[in-house]
């Protein structure tokens, strides 16, 4: 027993020395590009380099259908490109951001663990502004043409922030309401009409509390509907005008909260909890940012089949989700090839398959052949709980990302401690 | 060993210390100052959040300890004890979050309690709109915590009791005319308490900083400090990490002051206890204590048990609407969803659990044995072992990841095992330190006078006598290792998947069925561990009653 002690001391002194050294070296410098990053304009070379590369794709793992979809993607890129993809299942995208941040702080600029991650909105904004992303690469992908970006300029912006080729579009999503037709005959037409609806149906609706993203989505949708002029929402928040612009929102919420479940004394933490309240019959109306969430849950027997999906008239907040490559990713070529595959007609068609819907296609169907268009039309869901088809004109674009943070803070200040 | 443990801890701490004072060069914050603290203290509701954490930190251990002591006093020497003890171990193996989940489904307005009386008795076709979960005082959260801490304290107490000669003490007091429960409370409890002190501190630390239980059962307007910290750490705005770091330090201070308050209260309580003892009361209150001790424990353990049964039902439930008492349809779908994901990681899970626990037990025994042979008092520095339990995991692990990155160690099984050890060692130390130190030194001296070498004494005297606490410590360590999510994900960089990383990610989608399956699977392995921890000493010492860890 005594013999082990000197060894332990020796080990521990090595540790302390390394620790001291590493703390000295801990300067947060890092360049955006590794020396020999693959060049997406020479696509054949990228495909050649990607062959036999592993790929660690960090994506939220909370939805079984998405997991199954990604497993299928893994099989397909293995067969076509020899890429060994691993879906690293996250419970929160912030965990991957933590990893990238720690690597940057430690000066790891070229052998990062995260090869690709599924992000959008403020996660993208903060990774991009902190120079943590590789790029530009996305617009050089061969399949990017299907997106028809010139006709669909919204794919070039992520919460008003120019994407500039630093992430590649994957799927579309938008706000929907879902309601239980066994309890209420009709949902409110939109968020503004929700107040009247709630007076008739007290305790039948609630929404998640900040800092959950669905909470911010609801606040943004309400604000967009309630303001006379939405132009300032697409610019960074100005401290001087914030109070005046958001006044109608707080007035609305002051009136709405006593009509919510638990009289607004408690709010669910997130979307899944909201869905459980719906499943338990505690509420009859809920919202989601995944148009297929309700039908997914009905197919899983989690929600009753009397649940219907409803699109707010006058427009629903909509956005595109993307895949991005960290600046220090170890396998950038494999990441680009896989991002390209996600944009293929085959993969996009599979994403809206009625048996395992994971989202709305991001490619522009009008540039496809008639036969391909027919495939998409045929595979669209006919399930009664499925969302109605959304047209481009019904989309409300995401406000500038600074509004999200400002609205959350203001909400917490007003309602966060009673 | 201390350096091995404290260096990552210090790195973890420094990774929040500097940002808390506004220094995070990776995000272009390089001017230290107090701005972050000013921002923290002007955050709306921060005082309430801090107060919630502090009150949970003090009330949870107080209630749990009272119940455990009363129960042990009222059942000492009866068959109750062994019946309950068989219950305790499996209860302990269930993850906190899962137990909270089960409890939520029991007492929510749409939960089983209300379903049983609906619609026949209550007339409710829809769940009543009552604020039971997430109440603003945090009472439901504390109930959830107490339910899970009682089995922990009970197991710790049962592991410690055999060295106390409880029987002799009680018999002595009874011969002086004290009724059995009072006899136990006056003679055994004061000797048992010091052995439960460290576990109690762990309970305080856990209750003050719990995230998962607080998220499911805790107040929401505002939530506890720990929940807000997690929110800030996972905020897409990376600058919020500065605020999160300062709040994490505040959390550490709250945990430490809760322990401080507890230590101060100990002195007062000891004084009162002495006064009560000296009053010479031999029988007054005996009947009340007897009923209370048994019934409260039956109620709490019963509640926990029903909550867990509900998880089992959920794991096979298809459609289950309010106010049905049982699911309308049954399904294997949840198992088919989760099952295939878990076969591959199962090997990793077992390997990591066994390796990190074996390493931890080895290290802890080395430290304790070294201390015992030198005849020294416990080194002051040993408190540092507990830092991984005191600092919010998310803050600390960020620093740890940073350190491993700086050492240029490739993420892999070794790294994850090392990270697990940081959390396993404190719990193993917690389970083992007091029983090890309290072992009567005269056994050792006796062996030495008979010419036995220290090593021989250890193998032939100490190991057998400490078999019960050692086995318990091993099982606790195994449970801790299996429960690690963030530590596995961050240090393994997603390369190392375990039962927990796969299932927690899937459970974040929030379907009841998958959460239930996850909870049951996660509980299964430690349950086996605990079962073995209980069986091993009893099997080994089946012919020696006093060595089997029996209550009587």
Short description:
Chain A has about 425 residues and is an alpha/beta fold. Chain A is built from 14 helices and 12 strands.
| CATH architectural designation of chain B | Orthogonal Bundle
Number of helical regions of chain A: 14
CATH-assigned homologous superfamily of the largest domain in chain A = Periplasmic binding protein-like II
Largest pleated sheet of chain A: 7 strands, mixed
The CATH homologous superfamily of chain B is termed MetI-like
* CATH fold label of the largest domain in chain A: D-Maltodextrin-Binding Protein, domain 2
Order of helices and strands of chain B: HEEHHHHHHHHHHHHHHHHHHHHHHH
Q: Describe the main β-sheet of chain B briefly.
A: 2 strands, antiparallel
- Structure classification of chain A: alpha/beta
Supply Rg of chain A.
24 Å
Strand content bin of chain B? under 5%
CATH class of chain B: Mainly Alpha
Measured as a percent range, the helix fraction of chain A is: 40-55%
Terminal residue distance of chain A: 58 Å
Which geometry of chain B do the CA atoms define?
globular
CATH architecture of the largest domain in chain A: 3-Layer(aba) Sandwich
Q: Quaternary state, please?
A: heterodimer
Low-pLDDT ranges of chain B: none
Describe this structure in words.
- The complex is a heterodimer of chains A (418) and B (552).
- Chain A is of the alpha/beta class.
- Chain A has two domains: 43-173 and 319-387, D-Maltodextrin-Binding Protein, domain 2 (3-Layer(aba) Sandwich); 176-311 and 395-415, Periplasmic binding protein-like II (D-Maltodextrin-Binding Protein, domain 2).
- Helices cover 41% and strands 14% of the residues of chain A.
- Chain A contains 14 helices and twelve strands.
- In chain A, strands 1, 2, 3, 6, 10, 11 and 12 form a seven-stranded mixed sheet that branches. In chain A, strands 8-7-9 form a three-stranded antiparallel sheet, with helices on one face. A two-stranded antiparallel sheet of chain A has the order 4-5.
- In chain A, helix 2 (43-50) crosses helix 11 (332-342) and helix 7 crosses helix 14.
- Chain B has 552 residues and is mainly alpha-helical.
- Chain B has one domain: MetI-like (MetI-like fold), CATH 1.10.3720.10.
- Helix content of chain B is 73%, strand content 1%.
- Chain B contains 24 helices and two strands.
- Chain B has helices spanning 2-20, 35-41, 46-75, 79-93, 96-107, 112-116, 139-160, 166-175, 180-187, 189-209, 212-217, 225-233, 240-278, 286-316, 333-374, 387-390, 393-406, 413-438, 441-449, 454-465, 467-483, 486-492, 499-507, 512-540, and strands at residues 23-24, 29-30.
- Chain B has a two-stranded antiparallel sheet.
- The interface between A and B is large, with 89 and 90 residues.
């Amino acid at each position: 027993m005594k013999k082990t002690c000197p060894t332990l001391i020796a080990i521990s002194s090595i540790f302390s020395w390394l620790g001291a050294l590493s703390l000295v070296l801990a300067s947060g410098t890092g360049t955006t590009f590794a020396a020999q990053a693959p060049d997406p304009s020479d696509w054949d070379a990228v495909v050649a380099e990607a062959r036999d590369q592993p790929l660690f794709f960090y994506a939220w793992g909370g939805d079984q259908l998405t997991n199954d979809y990604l497993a299928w993607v893994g099989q397909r890129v293995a067969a076509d490109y020899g890429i060994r993809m691993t879906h690293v299942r996250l419970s929160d995208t912030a965990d991957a951001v933590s990893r990238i941040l720690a690597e940057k702080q430690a000066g790891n600029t070229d052998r990062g663990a995260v090869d690709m991650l599924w992000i959008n909105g403020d996660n993208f904004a903060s990774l991009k502004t902190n120079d943590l992303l590789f790029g530009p690469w996305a617009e050089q992908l061969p399949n990017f043409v299907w997106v028809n970006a010139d006709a669909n300029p919204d794919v070039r912006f992520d919460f008003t922030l120019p994407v500039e080729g630093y992430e590649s579009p994957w799927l579309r999503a938008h706000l929907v309401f879902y309601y239980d037709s066994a309890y209420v005959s009709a949902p409110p037409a939109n968020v503004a009409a929700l107040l009247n609806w709630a007076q008739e149906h007290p305790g039948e609706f609630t929404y998640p509390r900040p800092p959950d993203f669905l909470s911010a989505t609801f606040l943004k949708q309400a604000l967009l509907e309630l303001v006379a002029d939405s132009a300032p929402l697409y610019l960074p928040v100005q401290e001087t005008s914030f109070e005046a612009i958001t006044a109608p929102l707080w007035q609305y919420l002051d009136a709405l909260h006593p009509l919510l479940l638990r009289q607004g004394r408690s709010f669910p933490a997130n979307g899944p909890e909201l869905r459980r309240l719906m499943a338990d019959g505690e509420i009859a109306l809920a919202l989601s940012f995944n148009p297929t969430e309700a039908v997914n849950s009905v197919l899983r027997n989690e929600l009753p089949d009397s649940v219907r999906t409803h699109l707010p008239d006058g427009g629903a907040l909509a956005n595109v989700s993307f895949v991005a490559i960290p600046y220090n990713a170890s396998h950038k070529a494999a990441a680009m090839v896989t991002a390209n595959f996600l944009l293929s007609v085959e993969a996009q068609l599979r994403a809206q398959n009625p048996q395992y819907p994971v989202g709305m296609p991001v490619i522009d169907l009008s540039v496809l052949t008639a036969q391909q268009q027919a495939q998409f039309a045929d595979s669209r869901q006919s399930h009664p709980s499925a969302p109605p088809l959304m047209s481009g004109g019904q989309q409300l674009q995401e406000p500038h990302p600074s509004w999200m943070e400002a609205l959350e803070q203001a909400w917490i200040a007003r309602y966060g401690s009673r | 060993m201390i350096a091995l443990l404290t260096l990552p801890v210090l790195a973890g701490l420094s990774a929040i210390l500097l940002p808390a004072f506004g220094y995070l060069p990776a995000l272009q914050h390089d001017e230290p100052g107090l701005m972050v603290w000013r921002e923290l203290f002007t955050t709306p509701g921060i005082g309430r959040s801090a107060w919630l954490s502090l009150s949970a930190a003090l009330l949870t251990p107080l209630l749990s300890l009272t119940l455990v002591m009363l129960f042990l006093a009222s059942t000492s020497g009866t068959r109750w004890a062994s019946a309950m003890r068989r219950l305790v171990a499996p209860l302990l193996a269930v993850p906190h979050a899962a137990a909270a989940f089960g409890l939520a489904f029991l007492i929510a307005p749409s939960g089983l309690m209300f379903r049983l009386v609906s619609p026949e008795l209550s007339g409710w076709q829809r769940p009543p709109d009552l604020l039971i979960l997430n109440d603003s005082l945090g009472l439901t959260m504390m109930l959830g915590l107490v339910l899970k801490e009682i089995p922990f304290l009970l197991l710790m107490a049962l592991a410690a009791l055999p060295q106390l000669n409880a029987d002799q003490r009680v018999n002595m007091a009874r011969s002086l005319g004290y009724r059995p429960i009072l006899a136990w409370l006056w003679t055994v409890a004061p000797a048992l308490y010091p052995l439960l002190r460290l576990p109690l501190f762990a309970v305080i630390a856990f209750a003050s900083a719990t995230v998962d239980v607080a998220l499911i059962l805790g107040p929401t307007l505002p939530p506890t400090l720990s929940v807000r910290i997690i929110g800030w750490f996972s905020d897409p705005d990376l600058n919020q990490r500065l605020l999160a770091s300062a709040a994490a330090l505040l959390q550490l201070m709250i945990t430490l002051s809760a322990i401080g308050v507890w230590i101060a209260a100990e002195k007062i309580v000891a004084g009162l206890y002495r006064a009560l003892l000296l009053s010479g009361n031999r029988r007054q209150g005996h009947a009340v204590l007897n009923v209370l001790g048994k019934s409260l424990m039956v109620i709490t353990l019963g509640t926990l048990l029903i909550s867990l049964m509900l998880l089992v039902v959920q794991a096979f439930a298809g459609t289950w609407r309010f106010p049905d008492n049982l699911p309308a349809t049954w399904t294997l779908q949840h198992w088919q969803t989760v099952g295939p994901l878990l076969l591959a990681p199962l090997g990793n899970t077992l390997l990591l659990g066994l390796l990190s626990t074996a390493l931890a037990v080895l290290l802890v025994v080395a430290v304790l044995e070294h201390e015992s042979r030198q005849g020294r008092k416990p080194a002051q520095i040993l408190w540092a072992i507990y830092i991984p339990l005191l600092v919010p995991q998310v803050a600390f692990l960020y620093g740890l990841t940073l350190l491993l990155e700086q050492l240029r160690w490739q993420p892999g099984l070794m790294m994850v095992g090392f990270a697990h050890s940081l959390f396993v060692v404190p719990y193993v130390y917690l389970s083992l330190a007091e029983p090890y130190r309290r072992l009567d030194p005269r056994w050792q001296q006796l062996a030495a006078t008979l010419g036995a070498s220290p090593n021989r004494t250890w193998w032939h005297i100490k190991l057998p006598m400490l078999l019960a606490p050692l086995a318990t410590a091993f099982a606790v360590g195994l449970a801790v290792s299996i429960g690690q999510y963030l530590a596995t994900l961050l240090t393994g960089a997603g390369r190392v998947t375990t039962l927990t990383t796969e299932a927690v990610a899937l459970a974040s989608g929030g379907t009841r069925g998958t959460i239930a399956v996850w909870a049951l699977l996660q509980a299964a392995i430690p349950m086996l561990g605990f079962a073995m921890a209980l069986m091993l000493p009893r099997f080994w010492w089946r012919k020696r009653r006093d060595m089997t860890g029996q209550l009587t």
